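quick q for whoever's on today - can somebody do inverse folding on this one?? i tried earlier but teh output was garbage lol. tokens:
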């Protein structure tokens, strides 16, 4: 969950696999240049140029172009290195961490890194010096040496990444900055973990895959929801066969963010809100997609092959602005195109179906849905409830707490973890740092990051083309056929 807050540059349509795409990727975004701009590029930042403009009313005529554009980028380019599937970290006694981005999310996470044994925060970076210095004080308050502070300008993260005493770079910045920062970290020999989503364009996802393989550095989407207590219990139950043959699942990010998106202090500048002027589709699929993908062993015996998305009209943000924002507020210059609710159907090679939803623009309680069904029963979250044969035969939901024996060892070992989001943030950081210290294979890798993020650009194209199914690239280049370990780990010996 990335709640850092700095504005982002205006994205552009770039043809797939073009030299122009590489040139745009090399540009350094300026947080000041887009403080109050109106983004009118409907196909923004996709790496797919075929549908650059157009209106919703003409979307039906875009279907052939959408399929052609998606197919062009779905085709796997030649591998430039070796697969990173199943590649362990180098064992080390202490993990030295550099943190980039110290807004809401980064500031909340630094304490969790400091709480994990065998971890040292050696450098922090944010273009707002007060935030970087606040983070540095947290490090010294925890009894560690003062970290290096990088706050010269918005490019100073490059200097952090060049340091020779950093093993892992954590990125918690606005979405548009995730790709160049992950790229810079790997090019400087660092493993990197990035908040959601890891990039905004298919072209960028392919570049991260290729770069991870070439540099032999792991590039991971730090999807904290995969480490939720319910999610990890369902994961172990699914892998034990309690749901029978898995058939369908659902995940979502349905979270009313209207007040926060119009709060200039929470998201510094309107960077998150501006994405609703640029893309129509699912802007934040990872929290719902990641857990269901782990249940179904996506990239580890199955793979997702296509996505079809539809969206409502975009009314919620404009209605909130009408009711709450003063005349003359810069937000009145914005035209929102992002659907209030996007619904996507993802199909896998084994014929399973995953439903994804995204809604941050309308009033409703928080929900990630988190559902899984198979030939022997179904689980649904928010609230958690379960129905499994042969125990359940009366067509009524059962109590999920009865299945506590299936809790993952991480939750049995850390029953009351510190930090936010119910403790899942700490569990994620602890496990990642443990894998690095002990030289283990990470629970997820660059291929998972690319798959979980691919719905961002693809759902936009599919919505514009009235739900036409579009191919999802095989970022593993065939490695998905091999069963391998993932989130359902065994407790390692220290």
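ok took a stab at it. sequence:
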């Amino acid at each position: 969950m990335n709640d850092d807050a700095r504005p982002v540059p205006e994205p552009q349509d770039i043809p797939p696999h073009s030299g122009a795409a590489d040139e745009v990727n090399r540009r350094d975004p300026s947080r000041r240049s887009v403080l109050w701009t109106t983004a009118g590029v409907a196909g923004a930042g996709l790496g797919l140029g075929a549908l650059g403009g157009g209106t919703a009313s003409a979307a039906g005529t875009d279907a052939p172009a959408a399929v052609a554009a998606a197919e062009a980028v779905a085709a796997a380019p030649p591998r430039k290195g070796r697969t990173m599937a199943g590649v362990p970290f180098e064992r080390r006694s202490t993990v030295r961490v550099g943190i980039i981005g110290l807004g809401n999310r980064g500031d909340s996470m630094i304490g969790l890194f400091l709480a994990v044994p065998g971890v040292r925060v050696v450098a922090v970076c944010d273009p707002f010096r007060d935030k970087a210095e606040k983070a540095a004080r947290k490090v010294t308050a925890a009894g560690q040496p003062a970290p290096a502070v990088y706050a010269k300008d918005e490019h100073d993260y490059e200097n952090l990444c060049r340091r020779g005493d950093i093993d892992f770079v954590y990125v918690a910045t606005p979405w548009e900055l995730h790709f160049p920062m992950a790229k810079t970290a790997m090019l400087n020999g660092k493993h990197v973990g990035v908040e959601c989503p890891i990039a905004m364009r298919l072209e960028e996802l392919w570049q991260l895959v290729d770069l991870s393989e070439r540099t032999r550095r792991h590039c991971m989407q730090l999807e904290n929801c995969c480490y939720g207590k319910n999610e990890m219990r369902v994961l172990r139950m699914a892998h034990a066969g309690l749901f029978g043959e898995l058939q369908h699942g659902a995940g979502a990010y349905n979270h009313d963010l209207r007040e926060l998106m119009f709060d200039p202090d929470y998201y510094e500048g309107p960077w998150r809100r501006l994405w609703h002027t640029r893309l129509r589709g699912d802007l934040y699929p990872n929290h719902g997609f990641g857990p269901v993908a782990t249940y179904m062993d996506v990239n580890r015996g199955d793979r997702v092959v296509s996505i079809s998305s539809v969206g409502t009209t975009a009314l919620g943000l404009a209605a909130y602005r009408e009711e709450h924002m003063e005349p003359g507020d810069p937000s009145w210059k914005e035209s929102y195109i992002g659907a209030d609710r996007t619904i996507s159907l993802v199909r896998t090679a084994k014929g399973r179906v995953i439903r994804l939803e995204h809604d941050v623009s309308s009033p409703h309680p928080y929900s990630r849905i988190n559902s899984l069904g198979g030939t022997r029963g179904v689980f649904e979250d928010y609230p958690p409830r379960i129905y499994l044969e042969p125990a359940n035969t009366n067509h009524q939901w059962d109590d999920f707490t009865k299945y506590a024996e299936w809790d993952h060892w991480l939750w049995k070992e850390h029953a009351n973890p510190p930090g936010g989001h119910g403790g899942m943030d700490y569990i994620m950081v602890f496990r990642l740092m443990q894998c690095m210290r002990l030289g283990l294979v990470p629970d997820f890798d660059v291929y998972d990051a690319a798959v979980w993020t691919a719905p961002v650009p693809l759902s936009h194209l599919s919505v514009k083309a009235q739900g036409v199914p579009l191919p999802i690239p095989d970022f593993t280049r065939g490695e998905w056929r091999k069963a391998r370990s993932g989130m359902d780990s065994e407790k390692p010996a220290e």
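fwiw The chain has a mean pLDDT of 88. also The two ends are 30 Å apart (CA to CA). so keep that in mind when u check it
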